[in-house]
Amino acid sequence: MNRINIICVGVHDMKRSLAFYKAIGFQTFEKGDQPPIVFFNNQGSKLELFSINDLAKDINEVNPPALSNDSFYGITLAVNSKSEAEVDEMFQLVIQAGGKMIKEPTHADWGGYSGYFTDPDGYYWELAFGPDWEFDDNEMLVIKYACFVQSNFNLAKMTF
Question: Is the whole-model pTM more than 0.85?
Answer without folding.
Answer: no
